[in-house]
Amino acid sequence: MDNTDVGYPIGNAGQPWGNAERVLWLSRQVRQRSYETDVLQAIDQLGSRFDVSEYGRLEYAQGSFPLFSIRTRNWRDDLPVVLVTGGVHGYETSGVHGALRFAEQHMADLAGRANILVVPCVSPWAYERIQRWNPNAIDPNRSFYDNSPSGESAALLRLVAPLRGRFLMHIDLHETTDSDETEFRPALAARDGKVFEPGEVPDGFYLVDDTGNPQPAFQQAVLAAVSTVTHIAPTDASGEIIGSPVVAPGVIEYALKELGLCASITGARYTTTTEVYPDSPRATPEQCIQAQVAAVRAAIDYALAHA
């Protein structure tokens, strides 16, 4: 089970992981930070101004993880609904803290204009372990579909289900990191019995639009706001970002629903996935959080202006 020929120290070349490999992988995951301290305490402080509720709970051998959402108080049925999600991949730190920062500093400003639903940390086990997958070696952000094998994804799907058809906008906050190339993509290839093919991590912020529902003006409005905070990712020598053709500066497209991605879950007219690069020598952790907040604010402003 220890074969570096696959580009990862677990598994055998050409063979998808079985239970033994998954157990070995799980045994190597170490808790590095506290969901309780970093996230739950921040959510608790918002309870005096917003409606905070537990929408699910993940029961793992390593602990019990309550899942929380933050809603606009005095929810109004005549207003559009916007969704902000972070921490679908728990290791992507600025997504979690960008969602919390937006709720703390800007969410109240939208009272009377929209109903805001913020889910700051979809994957708390992975947040604590700075990991992409959940304990079962499943990627929540490829698992947003009926009968999902990911408890994280299934819980979020249940939360939004009663509101489908009312969402105007959904922004999902992510990062692309150096560890994508050194850890997470090699692990994915090994798990699936495939050969790891190295890629290039883009230096800067970019967005992922929906192939099935492209909204180019919306994406550009978000990028314009973010560019005042941090730099936008250039294309590589092939005119691509992470292996996808660039359809406009700083924008690529994915087939969101077909891939089971979080940004597909609402059916909203306006959707985007942010990607911040926290390992850039040109960006600080604080800039990454501010970039996420700028993206959320610009996305909501544009969507409301064009509702």
UniProtKB/TrEMBL annotation:
**Key words, A-Z:** Hydrolase, Metal-binding, Zinc
Q: Where would I find the Peptidase M14 domain in this sequence?
A: 31-307
Indicate yes or no for the key word rRNA-binding.
no
Record protein name field: Peptidase
State the needed cofactors, names only. Zn(2+)
CDD domains referenced in this protein's UniProt entry, alphabetically:
M14_REP34-like
Residues passing through the membrane, by range: none
Which segments of the protein form a coiled coil according to its record?
A: none
SUPFAM superfamilies in the record, alphabetically? Zn-dependent exopeptidases
The catalytic residues are E275
Family statement: Belongs to the peptidase M14 family.
Which terms in the Gene Ontology molecular function aspect does this entry carry? hydrolase activity, acting on ester bonds; metallocarboxypeptidase activity; zinc ion binding
Supply one GO BP term.
proteolysis
